[in-house]
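Usage

Read records sequentially. Each one opens with the input sequence:
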Amino acid sequence: MRAGKLDKAIVIEQRGEVVNDYGTVSEGWTKVASLRAQVLQQSTEEFLKSAGSTPETAVIFRIRWRADLTTEHRVTYRGQIFDLKEIKELGRRDGLELRCVAGG
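and closes with the structure output:
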């Protein structure tokens, strides 16, 4: 994986407890890591659902390999939130492809 292609900044988040300025604990999203990524694909796909077709934005991010990611995490890119649907390993721990759908 060439470092020059990892030219976008993304943030990986996980659901957990968040403490605000007043000490109140609530459920929310906490930052796990800020990473450099390559955006491979960004398109609008139409998925057929019971109410008809709904456009969803699908994005594939390529990052360096990490052992701690699951589909319970989410990705923030350019202020937009993407739900992590699938993680594909590239090579032998060379990198990961994060297949995401816009959501929130």
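Summary fields computed downstream for this record:
- The first strand starts at residue 8 and ends at 19.
- The domain at 3-102 is CATH 2.40.10.270 (Thrombin, subunit H).
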